[in-house]
Every structure is written in C-alpha cells, then in structure tokens.
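A.,

Following up on our hallway conversation. Structure tokens first:
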C-alpha cells in the first residue's frame, strides 16, 4: 500500500485527516476534492474514520475507484436536452433574479407569537426557505449543474391584513418543442427566504433568537430543517446551534440542560451516551398521565457554560448515524433532535428549545442503488416526514374558523409525538415553531425542490391582522377580554386571589394570556397569595384559552353555542326516527302487495 494510504493512527488530528481525505478524493473522485472543507471537517469531528469508511463503501478502496451511477442520462435520440443549453438557461435565470433591497421586517417570529386579533394562537409557525450555494464540482460544472433556484422579491406588507412576504423562485429549465430553451418560473411565498449568499449568523438572528427569548420565558421554541438530502439542513442547524451556544442562554439565574436523541422509525437512540460513533439504543418516548411528553433512557446533562454545551453538541454529532449516499457523502440517516431546557432557578419553571435536523428526503432515482438496509431506512424516514407534513397541515387548518373538529395525528410517529407541544391544541404553553426549508440550487433537482417547496410553502399562515372583525367575537376567549372584563373574571372565578387588581396591573386579557407561568407566580407572591393560588389562576386562564381554541364555529366564523349543538343533535335524532318510520310504512305496503 502507498505511504499516503496507510491507516492513520487512532489519535490522528483533524489536519492529518483533512490531508488523507483530500488525497483519497484526488485518487477516487477528483471532481469532489473541494468537498473537503471546514463544514465537512466540523460535521465529522471525532469520527473521521467513520466518514472514511463511508467513502470507501461508496467510491471504493483508495486508488481503485468504483464507477458512479450517472444521474442525468444524456438523450439518445439526438433531441437537444437541458444540458445542451446550460449557458442560455443561466442567462435567462440571471435575468429573472431580482436584486434584493434590505429587509423591512425583521420581527416576523415575535409578531406571529403576539398576533392575537382573533384570539391567542397558542402555536405559531414561521416558515422559511434557504437555498444553498453551488458546491465543489457543481461550480462551473457540466450538464444540469447550474443554479435554477434563487431568492426572489421581498414584498412589503401594508401593516394591515396584507402580510410581508419573501419569495423563492424556481426556474425550471425546459426545451420547447421548437427546440428553444425557456424557463418555467414558479414563485413560493415564505416569511423569510435566504439566498445562496446568506450566512448562518443572519438566519440565527431572525429566526432562532426569538425562539430563545420564548424559551427563557418558560415557553417552547422549535426549529427544524426539512428538505432533500444534501440540501444543507445539517449545515443550517449546526449554524443555529452555534448561535444558541454563544447566546444569552447562560446566566446565573438559569440552569441549562441538554439532551440529544436520534430517531429512525420507532428506534430511538441517545447520542450523548453513544459509543464507537453510534447512539445508545433503547430510548422510549411516551405520553405521561398529565399529557406531557416523557422520555425513558435518555440522558440529560447539565451545562454550566457555553464550552460545556459545545462539547456535548460535538459528542452528539459524533454519534449520529450517517452514510455516503449518491447525493451527499456526509448524509444524516436519522432525525436528530437536540433538546435544550432552561430552568428559571427562582421559580423552577422550565422553557424548552428543540433544534431538529431531519433526515433528508430522496428522489426515487437517488435511492435506486441502495441496499436493503438503506431502502428500509429511506422508507422509515419518508413515513415520518409524511406524518410530520400531515400534522403541520392539520394544525394550521385547525386554527382557521369552522375547523374545530380537525384531528392532528401527532401520535402517528415518534418524531411528531416528541413535538407534541407544537401540535396539541390543548397545550398549556405558548409554542413558536420555525420551519426551515432547505433547497438544492441545481437545475438537476428542480422537480424534487419543487415538491419540497410545494410541501412547505402552504404551511405558512400569514399574519391576519385587521381581519378579526369577520369572526364573531368569542366572549369567553380571555385573549379578547378588556381590562375590566379580565378583572371581573379574576374576581369572580378566583376568590382566593387577595388583590386581583394589583395582580392584573392593568393588563388586558391578551397580555395576561401571553405572560409566562413564572410571572403568575411572581405577581401572586406580590399580593401575598400562595403558589397554589398562582397555579390555579394560571390553569384557569389556560383552560379558557384551550376552550376558545376548540370552540366550534361555522365556516362563516359564527360560534355554535352548546345549546345550538344540542338542538342540532336532537334534530338529527328526530330526522332519523322520521325516516325509519317512513321506511317501516313502505315496507308494510310492499309486503301487503305480494
Ligand atoms: N449554505 C451553505 N454554505 C456552504 N456549504 C453548504 C451550505 N449548505 C450546505 N453546504 C454543504 O453542502 C453539503 C451537504 O450539506 P448538508 O450535509 O448540510 O446537507 P443535508 O441536507 O443535511 O443532507 P442529508 O439530508 O443527506 O444529511 C455539505 O458539504 C455542506 O457543508
């Protein structure tokens, strides 16, 4: 064996591994040498030998490359294909790409959380898309390796019902029947769109920082990345995690803990207790008697400072299951969920942040070379992604008037069960979710990227400011109470609260509902009420919020009262009995005719 291919010692450092990987790619996949970058080195820190083994599986032993399947087959008929017109398409796409003005809105996540015109929305979604840059041999590459997905216009809102929107443009290259190149452009609306030149720091500030603020207030923040394999999900999630580590998460008033699990179907592993690059299996996720989500067999580590959290995140990354797939040499083959809890040491109330890196979806063409194990993996990944899609769709629909009876099937997969706070209409904490749609820029991938965008764009519910008048006002919804109505409620429903006026401090219902649990405790203590009373008031308010969220409405927004519901039920019974009597009568006549 050549000197350069001899096994590296177990304690070889990152530089030695970088040289080894470069030398390996030069021998077996020379066009991919540029893939050995700082992002790859950090993703695989601590488990370079696993990466090397994955590459050997895909590209063969050093110096003996295995031929790779060709992804875009050249046409045999002599008819011109997209690849033949690459420069023309690039010119057309450059013409369609707008130059972007600076953003006018940078507070979408917080604005959504506070959008209470139609009653308080307990779970809000901010839906974003990011397209990664061209990488390695894609740059100036041949065939359909040019960028056909670009950040489109930013459309300012009017401060009223019309929402602020950013667009992702999908420019599908087509060769017309006349043999001329043309692009079919489709626009997809998002809250934020991040182009190929966007940086993780900017994305953190706009999307993840507001979630952290929410978690520090005892509430729940969730961010997850969805998209095709190799589209940049892990790159983005790692960037957001780095942002969180260096944030205001740590303070003497807060205790921070961290857990990391990986999910593949019903198999759940603890990545902080992993050995030999593999997560420790046997973690269970389930619902507790009080409806909260509990885990068994999952370790939770306390971290006193950013350095400790960073070390745990690196350890978790080192245990995640990865493989070299046809589209990504460093593909994650499981869903990875980092859970950060921040406990207020004064009140004991805990906020939570979930940072979820989903496994990538694959095109049928990309999975055709998989072995049976990888095929089974792909099936499990796709099943849980489809459960996630259904849950988000049902949950956003359930927020619309007249849709109270919608079922959100979050128990269908372990992934959605873990995210119960996002989907449960009766949850007792506010929850903000950021969906990050990761897109490949390649023309080769436009069909798959189109599906990804079609999946995620409709999840966005635009801010509905100014449209509240269309709904019949729900007198029992605390989020709609005036200061006087809120005070009347506290006085009547909570006689044990000594001084409701001071407790309320002049807040209208919507502001009372948005207070974190710990603030109820602080306010109760200030008026001399015990913790039990604070808890009773908090749960009382939240019972009203949940009832208001599930109140039955007609599609026109009017409320169906319990009395009307009862009348409807009795009417249906009466109609059924009348029909049965008519049928009995007919049958009697039919019998007598024979
Ligand atoms: N915005 C970006 N800037 C620079 N490099 C990027 C960016 N996004 C992704 N990459 C690079 O692209 C490659 C694939 O990205 P990544 O592993 O994050 O994809 P993924 O969507 O997580 O894939 P999979 O689902 O297969 O795990 C990596 O080498 C990564 O470093």
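Then the amino acids I'd put at each of the 594 positions:
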């Amino acid at each position: 064996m050549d000197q350069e291919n001899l096994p590296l010692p177990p304690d070889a450092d990152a530089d030695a591994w970088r040289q080894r990987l470069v030398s390996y790619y030069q021998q077996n996949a020379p066009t991919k040498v540029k893939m050995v970058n700082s992002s790859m080195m950090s993703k695989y820190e601590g488990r370079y030998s696993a990466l090397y083994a994955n590459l050997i599986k895909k590209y063969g032993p050093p110096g003996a490359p295995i031929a790779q399947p060709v992804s875009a087959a050249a046409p045999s008929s002599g008819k011109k294909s997209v690849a033949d017109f690459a420069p023309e398409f690039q010119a057309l796409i450059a013409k369609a790409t707008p130059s972007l003005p600076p953003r006018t809105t940078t507070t979408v996540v917080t604005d959504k959380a506070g959008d209470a015109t139609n009653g308080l929305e307990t779970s809000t979604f901010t839906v974003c898309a990011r397209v990664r840059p061209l990488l390695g041999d894609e740059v100036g590459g041949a065939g359909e390796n040019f960028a056909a997905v670009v950040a489109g216009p930013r459309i300012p809102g009017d401060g009223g019902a019309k929402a602020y929107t950013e667009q992702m443009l999908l420019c599908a290259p087509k060769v017309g029947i006349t043999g001329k190149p043309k692009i079919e452009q489709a626009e997809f609306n998002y809250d934020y769109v991040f182009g190929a030149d966007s940086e993780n720091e900017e994305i953190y500030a706009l999307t993840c920082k507001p979630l952290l603020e929410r978690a520090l207030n005892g509430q729940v923040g969730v961010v997850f990345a969805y998209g095709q394999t190799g589209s940049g999900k892990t790159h983005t999630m790692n960037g957001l995690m780095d942002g969180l580590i260096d944030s205001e998460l740590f303070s003497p008033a807060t205790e921070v803990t961290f857990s990391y699990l990986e999910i593949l179907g019903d198999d759940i592993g603890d990545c902080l207790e992993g050995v030999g690059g593999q997560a420790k299996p046997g973690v269970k996720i389930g619902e507790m008697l009080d409806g909260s989500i509990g885990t068994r067999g999952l370790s939770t580590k306390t971290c006193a400072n950013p350095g400790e959290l960073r070390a745990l995140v690196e350890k978790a990354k080192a245990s995640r299951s990865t493989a070299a797939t046809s589209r990504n040499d460093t593909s994650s083959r499981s869903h990875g969920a980092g859970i950060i809890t921040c406990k207020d040491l004064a009140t004991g109330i805990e906020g939570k942040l979930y940072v979820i890196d989903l496994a990538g979806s694959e095109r049928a063409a990309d999975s055709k070379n998989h072995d049976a194990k990888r095929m089974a993996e792909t099936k499990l990944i796709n099943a849980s992604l489809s459960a996630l899609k259904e849950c988000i769709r049902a949950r956003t629909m359930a927020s619309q008037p007249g849709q109270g009876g919608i079922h959100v099937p979050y128990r269908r997969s372990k992934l959605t069960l873990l995210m119960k706070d996002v989907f449960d209409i009766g949850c007792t904490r506010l929850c903000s979710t950021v969906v990050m749609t990761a897109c490949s820029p390649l023309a080769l991938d436009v069909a798959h990227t189109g599906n990804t965008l079609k999946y995620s764009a409709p999840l966005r519910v635009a801010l509905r400011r100014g449209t509240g008048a269309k709904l019949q006002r729900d007198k029992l919804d605390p989020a709609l109470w005036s200061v006087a109505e809120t005070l009347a409620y506290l006085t009547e429903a909570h006689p044990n609260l000594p001084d409701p006026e001071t407790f309320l401090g002049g807040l209208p219902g919507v502001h009372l509902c948005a207070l974190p649990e710990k603030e109820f405790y602080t306010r109760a203590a200030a008026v001399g009420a015990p913790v039990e009373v604070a808890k009773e008031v908090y749960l009382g308010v939240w019972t009203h919020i949940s009832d208001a969220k599930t109140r039955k409405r007609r599609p026109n927004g009017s409320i169906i009262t319990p009395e009307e519901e009862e009348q409807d039920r009795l009417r249906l019974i009466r109609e059924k009995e009348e029909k049965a009597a008519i049928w009995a009568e007919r049958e009697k006549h039919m019998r007598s005719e024979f």
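Residues 35, 39-40, 132-133, 135, 227, 229-235, 328, 330-332, 359-360, 438 surround adenosine-5'-triphosphate (CB under 6 Å). Curious whether your intuition agrees with the design.

B.
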